[in-house]
């Protein structure tokens, strides 16, 4: 068999190593209760609303509160299989609510678009809504939804509110604070938690919607817990404090609860808007130092903010910090090495590659000695690379679409969308990621970008990441996105959309690129034809750079 495997490896980009360790076949609350028994007095969750407004819960406190809350909800009619909508920014209440609903076997729909909240709750036939009410807009939305409970065949029958206006209850709704206080001394729920199976639906997370209407992706308890295979990249354990600013209604932020439940890690988070929209670098580092953070998630937008921060060197003196995890989009290796120089105690930066729908796929550990941008496919996952137009396997090292077979992928992948679920897989069960990349025979995977981002200029397929990596070397460039724009002769041409340092200008960048990019056999170089300066780049709902919007703005500016 080994000789047969070796023979095909030279023909096809395929890789698979069986997972040695077994999958954890448990529910979220089962994993948490075991951990809480081991570390009862350790902080489980810490949340900062502002620099000074800090809230925390130990494992013992969180377990007790989640059990009493589950009993309160059970008495209000919540049961296994109920669809419960969840709309909230990061807050301390997120933790006991999630565990309480897990104990009851409810399926949580993580909704983050307030403008569509009412329609989404009704469309997905949710039986209840957990709603954070913290400002006037959220109060208006609450009133709108409450006015439709109950109505006709609408199954929505209960709204639990929390937050600054959490006591402003309308109709048959309930205040989370009152639910917790009302059941503080009750006995544990009558076997409801034992009736929940690891293969039961647990959470529905939604895509960013950058390619259309956001799709709801169903995760079971089993699939959710085993996402921890990716999160081990953070090297978090029971002696760790993990910071993650990602919204907890997204899987990338909800992983805090996963790490807390599975590894005994202290989960530390803040209001995401302070980091994403307001770029509060000093606020984040004040917290990292104060809480002796050992592990942190840093997304691309924060890395850019940090590297361009005027006092970055002094703020990065966090003696306790050892590991940084990043991902979400193609990362520039030189940028990551600059990040390493700011943190003298950091052991490594880990880049993760995966998605909510495809599961964890590959990892790369970046140190001072790293010379490649390739990631290693993780054990237990099958990966192959195919020609995008024909779906035929490509030879090792050739570019194509990355396809995955992962036992963690739920076959009814997209909630209430059977057609999309079936279309996501080919006849052999391969999930097509839509990402373009190359892979070596030993599972070293390199991701170039999205299939839709690929630029077809004349007879050559250009991957934006290749051009962006070169332009990013220019010290006058803060950030760069390369998009394709229409061209009569070549079909598409390259347009560099850049955010410049105050000392730089696009005319100087254009001259620099003409010298930097060599001319190919077709007489063309990869130096962009157009250069446009931006003050900032729009982000998707999940914090990724929104290439589609950038291209649209470029077309407007160029009048193409």
TrEMBL record:
<feature type="domain" description="AMP-dependent synthetase/ligase">
    <location>
        <begin position="34"/>
        <end position="413"/>
    </location>
</feature>
<dbReference type="InterPro" id="IPR045851">
    <property type="entry name" value="AMP-bd_C_sf"/>
</dbReference>
<dbReference type="InterPro" id="IPR020845">
    <property type="entry name" value="AMP-binding_CS"/>
</dbReference>
<protein>
    <submittedName>
        <fullName>Uncharacterized protein LOC106152043</fullName>
    </submittedName>
</protein>
<dbReference type="InterPro" id="IPR000873">
    <property type="entry name" value="AMP-dep_synth/lig_dom"/>
</dbReference>
<dbReference type="Pfam" id="PF00501">
    <property type="entry name" value="AMP-binding"/>
</dbReference>
<dbReference type="Pfam" id="PF13193">
    <property type="entry name" value="AMP-binding_C"/>
</dbReference>
<feature type="domain" description="AMP-binding enzyme C-terminal">
    <location>
        <begin position="466"/>
        <end position="544"/>
    </location>
</feature>
<dbReference type="InterPro" id="IPR042099">
    <property type="entry name" value="ANL_N_sf"/>
</dbReference>
<dbReference type="InterPro" id="IPR025110">
    <property type="entry name" value="AMP-bd_C"/>
</dbReference>
């Amino acid at each position: 068999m080994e000789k047969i495997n070796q023979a095909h490896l030279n023909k096809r980009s395929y890789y698979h190593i069986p997972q040695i360790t077994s999958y954890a076949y448990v529910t979220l609350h089962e994993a948490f209760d075991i951990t809480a028994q081991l570390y009862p007095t350790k902080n489980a969750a810490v949340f900062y609303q502002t620099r000074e407004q800090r809230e925390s819960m130990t494992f013992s406190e969180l377990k007790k509160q989640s059990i009493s809350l589950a009993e309160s909800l059970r008495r209000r009619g919540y049961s296994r299989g109920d669809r419960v909508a969840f709309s909230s920014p990061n807050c301390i209440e997120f933790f006991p609510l999630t565990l309480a609903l897990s104990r009851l076997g409810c399926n949580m729909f993580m909704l983050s678009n307030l403008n569509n909240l009412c329609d989404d709750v009704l469309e997905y036939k949710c039986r209840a809504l957990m709603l954070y009410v913290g400002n006037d807009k959220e109060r208006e939305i609450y009133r709108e939804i409450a006015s439709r409970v109950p109505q006709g065949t609408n199954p929505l029958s209960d709204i639990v509110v929390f937050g600054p206006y959490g006591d402003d209850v309308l109709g048959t709704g309930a205040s989370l604070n009152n639910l917790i206080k009302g059941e503080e001394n009750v006995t544990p729920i009558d076997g409801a938690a034992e009736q929940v199976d690891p293969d039961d639906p647990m959470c529905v997370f939604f895509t960013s919607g950058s390619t259309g209407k956001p799709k709801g992706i169903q995760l079971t308890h089993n699939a959710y817990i085993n996402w921890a295979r990716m999160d081990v990249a953070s090297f978090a354990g029971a002696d760790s404090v993990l910071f993650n600013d990602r919204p907890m209604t997204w899987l990338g932020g909800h992983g805090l609860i996963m790490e807390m439940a599975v590894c005994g890690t202290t989960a530390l988070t803040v209001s995401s808007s302070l980091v994403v929209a307001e770029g509060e670098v000093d606020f984040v580092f004040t917290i990292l130092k104060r809480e002796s953070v050992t592990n942190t998630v840093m997304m691309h937008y924060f890395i850019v903010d940090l590297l361009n921060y005027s006092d970055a060197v002094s703020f990065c003196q966090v003696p306790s910090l050892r590991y940084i995890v990043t991902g979400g989009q193609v990362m520039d290796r030189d940028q990551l090495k600059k990040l390493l120089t700011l943190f003298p105690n950091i052991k490594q930066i880990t880049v993760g590659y995966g998605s909510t729908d495809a599961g964890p796929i590959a990892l790369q550990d970046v140190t001072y000695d790293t010379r490649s941008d390739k990631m290693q496919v993780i054990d237990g996952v099958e990966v192959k690379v195919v020609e995008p137009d024909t779906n035929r396997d490509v030879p090792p090292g050739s570019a194509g679409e990355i396809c995955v077979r992962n036992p963690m992928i739920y076959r009814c992948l997209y909630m209430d969308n059977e057609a999309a679920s079936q279309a996501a897989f080919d006849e052999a069960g391969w999930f097509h990621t839509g990402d373009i990349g190359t892979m070596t025979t030993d599972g070293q995977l390199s991701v170039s970008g999205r299939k839709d981002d690929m630029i077809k200029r004349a007879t050559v397929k250009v991957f934006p990441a290749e051009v962006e990596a070169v332009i990013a070397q220019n010290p006058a460039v803060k950030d760069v996105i390369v998009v394709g724009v229409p061209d009569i002769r070549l079909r598409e041409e390259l347009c560099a959309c850049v955010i410049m340092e105050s000392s730089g200008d696009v005319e100087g960048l254009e001259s620099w690129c003409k010298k930097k990019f060599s001319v190919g056999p077709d007489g063309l170089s990869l130096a962009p034809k157009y250069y446009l300066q931006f003050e900032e780049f729009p982000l998707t709902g999940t914090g990724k750079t929104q290439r589609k919007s950038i291209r649209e703005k470029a077309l407007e500016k160029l009048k193409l």
